[in-house]
Fold:
Amino acid sequence: MDATVVLRNRATNGQATQKTNSAGQYTFVNVAPGEYEVTVKKDGFRTADVASLTVEVSRSYNVDVRLEIGAASESVTVTTEARVELQTTDAQLGDVVGGTTLVRLPTLQRDASELLTLQPGTTPYDTTANGGFGNQGGTVAGARSDQNTIVMDGIDITDNTVGGGSNAQNFIPTGVESLEEFKVGVTNSNATFSRASGGQIPLVSKGGGNTLHGDGYWFHQSDGYNANSWDLNRVGQKKSPFKDNREGVSIGGPVFHNKTFFFSNYEKRRFPAGQTVTHIVPTDSLRNGILEFKDGGGVLRQYDLATAANCGPGGNLACDPRGIGISPTVQALYKLNPAGTDSSVPGVDGNNTLGLRTSVTTPIKQDYITFRLDHNFTDKMHFFGRYIYSRNLQITPTQIAALAGKPTIATTGNDTRGDGVIGALNYAFNSTTNNVIRYGWIRSRIFLPGLSPSASAASLALPGTDSSGGPVALAPGLGTVGLLDVPIDVDTQRARTQGNFQRTKQLIDDFSKINGRHNIVAGGSIRWLPITAQRNDKVVGSLASLVALMDADGNGGASPIPDVNRPPTCNLAGQSFCLQGADVQKWDRLYAATLGVVDNINVLAVRDGNLNPLPFGTPLIANANMQAYDMYVQDTWRFKPSLTLTYGLSYGWQTPPHEARNEQTFIVDAATSQILTAQGYINSKKQAALNGQAFNPVYSLSPHRQVWTEQYLQSRLS
Structure:
């Protein structure tokens, strides 16, 4: 008992001192990952030195030292071996990845999140193709991927806008060159993790030491030895460019010896990429208002909609009763498409439509920089601060503009930027009492721009597309994609613009006290989670632009085409001027599109918090805020070296999103103004049926300012 134990960081020369208790036990808490030396001294005994001890993130170690009788000036060196160690002070299971392993494992994006599933009990991904939920962020011990918690330097960096089994990952980059190591806690999490039931993933950034060190790196992929793709080569198109360059530099060292240290990493990626894209374009005959279909004898028949009189059940009526044929505005739109050259594009029939296959430039530009500063005020007080900035700028081929006589270009993109500040102050009151306070401010700004249908309609300036509400975009045959494309995509999934801007501000305090065989820890955190979401679409359906749908037979909700406006269906082998059964719906859709039969004009109309209408083109913007509060207490009781009991309790509550401008509404019963919940609606329907009545309330929307909280309580025993 009362032996002096000194733990020294070999990189920074920082030291911590403990006294052993009556059982000869000692404990160091809040030890940063790194290489250490342990020295044990006591009068009447030789000094024992553990020359090298590697400490990893979120792991506990037993370092047993036997003191031999002798003079304190004599020393005994104790050698530790690399081995699989049974965790007797912490029941959490999980492996650590760091050092050379972290840097040299293959990662396509050089991000540590790609390695989080290299653990027993984890599943890399699960796609809908094999019946899963699309959990691409990594499922841990059976928990869905959106239940993972990712913490960097003690600050939560989990994406707060993801749910329902989608990607659950960090919302700022975690470059492998800037990290010391990370761990995935698979099971038996302790009370300090109370937010989620999935994996607990702490990451630790690199720091500087007393020795100046640095490195540079360059990764290059080239298309110099790549052959052209079969698809592009067949239609006479050049191969897409592929020269991917990723390079960076890291440097760390002392500012003041044994006092202040720094580390910085900068990495960039320049990738002038290209991708193959396709469009379905009208044939020359369709551009002139002529539909072509095979009859019962397999003969290809032409129907000039302006003059054809082969429609109706008897095949003797004018297909266009007006005798006009193709709409002049639609014809002008059709002629803006480049010529089709590829009949193998999915959806084309070779008679009315052909495929355009070409390549577009989709460059990627990425930058990432981090700077960390560590400072020892005294032997008892340590501070570290870190700044992070990243950007990922891409052009994506989700929406393309393919105009005759001009190069095809991609008109959508991904503009993602993130930055953050993390700081921590560690103070040791004495050898048994320690407190760490942390602050984090992390921000992510994701903007996915597209060319709106209003903007594309204005640029095309087709005759007859002006209106008092602004330019009207034309969507012939686009109730369901796959029949025909327009020169600039206007359907919702390809032309929408979305933005997701999230921030997280955190204040965390952790207190630890060693009392005999007990290691007591307690703490709490406050998280402010403001989120701004912007979009000009409803996921499916309307955009915040006037779009005229010209389609039929339920596609996009369009009405059916009467029998009198199409040739009769073939009933006999060899029957002429009739439609085969599989072609009926295609005729109806191309008929409505080519004649310019407008079924409806869709637009996403937005209202303010008082339900007043806003001008067309106004996007949906939700400016919401949430708060989360957590606290915990835990005790690790070492009965004896081979038996440890860890027990604790955590408590937390979280507010639901609250819209800052009162633009949050509930569905209510218009007669009573009561909020309609799913269970309440079912109960009301049931009660009305039992009374021989019908419950069919008139719905209305009501803005609400109410905020309530969700509370959760967890206990841990291991």
Q: What stands out?
A: Residues 279-360+565-598 form one domain. The radius of gyration is 34 Å. The CA atoms of residues 185 and 618 lie 45 Å apart.
